[in-house]
Sequence to fold (136 residues):
Amino acid sequence: MGKQSGKWAIGALLAGVAGYIGGILTAPKSGKETREDIKDSATKAKAEAEKKLKLAHKELVDLTDKAKSKAGDISSKAKTELNTVIDKAQSVKSRASELLSAAHEGEADDKDLQKAIDEAKKASEHLKQFLKSTEK
Fold:
């Protein structure tokens, strides 16, 4: 059984190498064009992430403003909870703003942008839930 799996692995490796070489030889674009396409795709992905982060940031700004205006109308326990949610949202909003600047200057990683987008969405959801609960 061990000999068979070894032969299979070698066969798979050779097939993979043959496929790779065949792909390169029959590729309709040069290496330079392919690298340029990859670079363009990465640039577009980063721009899309930056756009999503900008939208999340704007939503946080709107929601924190709305939550602050509601603060006067609620009980002290709810006010404490609201202030906690607002503080977290403002922290996330600040981080999003910093990352937007870094992304604009080309200093932010895609994973950092995605993490900030996720955090901003969570903070927005918390604010929306809180505001919805105060409307009852």
Q: What stands out?
A: The CA atoms of residues 68 and 86 lie 8 Å apart. The chain has a mean pLDDT of 75. Residues 31-70 form the longest helix (40 residues). DSSP finds four helices and no strands in the chain.
